[in-house]
């Protein structure tokens, strides 16, 4: 059959990225506690297209996803995106994967167990200069205002907050990113706030969480520094971006804070992360 996509295009305009987005597909990711976890991902796959070609071969993106759906993680995604680049004969390829990740949580007093969902994301890129991989997670937390606690006769305002963490890991001797577990990033984020958020709490648990938050007041600035400081000390991590936003309960606005480390590298590559 005639290959229209490979025909010559006379406009002489290369395309930076072309591909498919909004693709929902079942995948399997690494799970620290159970080895593997099945989830549903939303994917975006793209390649660069030289000026002389009319189009790319969209079906090949789906072929690549289907072939590798049994494991998508820090160890495999760099190879997947490099394979995509070679299959489509492109200078550059990029894959973004967003998925819910579930962890079993135990309530602090009752011991009741339930599943908590976290929004996670991978982004991998391959080009003639090498590859890149970013892993990220969004973690809900509780914060209690230190100022409100200090000036009030009783009580203090608290709010839901979100910690968005993105990191690049150092490379192994084989050129793959060093393993940083999703669970590790979640734990660092939760420990940085006033208290964690739980999917299931009995009355005694609500009491425990409320008092924990009261005993650990934190500004949004405290949370972002706590997370960035802990991750910066991890030798496996060579770049990070931490964004914390709190949904203020008594103000008509939200509060946020961002740390990128190293700062210059983060600013240069901001468009390549999330």
Give a concise summary.
With 274 residues, the chain is α+β, with helices and mostly antiparallel strands. 26% of the residues lie in helices and 39% in strands.
Question: Main traits of this protein?
Answer:
274 residues, alpha+beta, nine-stranded antiparallel sheet
Structural class: alpha+beta
Shape: elongated
Number of helical regions: 7
Low-confidence stretches: 264-274
Strand residues, percent: 35-45%
Task: Give a structural overview.
The structure is a single chain. This protein has about 270 residues and is α+β, with helices and mostly antiparallel strands. Helices cover about 25% and strands about 40% of the residues. Strands 1, 2, 3, 4, 5, 6, 7, 8 and 9 form a 9-stranded antiparallel β-sheet that branches. Helix 4 packs antiparallel against helix 6. The chain is elongated. It starts with 14 loop residues before the first strand and ends in a 6-residue tail after the last helix. Mean pLDDT is about 90; it is low at about 265-274.
Blueprint (SSEs and pairs):
Blueprint: E1 15-31, E2 35-49, H1 58-68, H2 77-87, E3 93-106, E4 113-127, E5 130-144, H3 146-151, E6 158-169, H4 182-192, E7 195-196, H5 203-215, H6 220-232, E8 237-246, E9 255-261, H7 263-268
Antiparallel strand pairs: 1-2, 2-3, 3-4, 4-5, 5-6, 5-7, 6-8, 8-9
Helix pairs in contact: 1-2, 4-6
């Amino acid at each position: 059959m005639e290959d229209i996509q490979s025909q010559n295009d006379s406009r002489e305009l290369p395309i930076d990225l072309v591909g498919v987005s909004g693709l929902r597909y079942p995948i399997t990711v690494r799970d620290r506690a159970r080895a593997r976890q099945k989830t549903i991902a939303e994917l975006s796959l793209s390649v660069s297209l030289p000026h002389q070609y009319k189009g790319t071969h969209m079906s090949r993106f789906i072929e690549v996803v289907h072939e590798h759906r049994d494991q998508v993680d820090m160890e495999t995604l760099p190879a997947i995106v490099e394979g995509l680049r070679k299959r489509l004969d492109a200078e550059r390829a990029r894959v973004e994967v967003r998925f819910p990740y579930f962890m079993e949580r135990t309530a602090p007093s009752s011991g009741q167990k339930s599943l908590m969902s976290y929004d996670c994301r991978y982004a991998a890129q391959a080009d003639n200069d090498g590859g890149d991989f970013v892993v990220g997670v969004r973690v809900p937390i509780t914060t209690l205002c230190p100022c409100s606690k200090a000036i009030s006769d009783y009580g203090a305002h608290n709010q839901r907050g979100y910690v968005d963490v993105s990191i690049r890991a150092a490379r192994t001797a084989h050129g793959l990113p060093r393993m940083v577990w999703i669970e590790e990033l979640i734990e660092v984020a939760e420990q940085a706030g006033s208290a964690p958020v739980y999917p299931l709490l009995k009355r005694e648990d609500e009491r425990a969480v409320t008092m924990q938050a009261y005993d650990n007041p934190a500004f949004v600035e405290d949370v972002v520094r706590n997370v960035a400081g802990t991750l910066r000390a991890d030798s496996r991590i060579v770049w990070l971006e931490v964004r914390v936003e709190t949904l203020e309960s008594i103000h008509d606005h939200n509060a946020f804070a961002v740390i990128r480390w190293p700062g210059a590298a983060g600013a240069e590559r901001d468009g390549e992360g999330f």
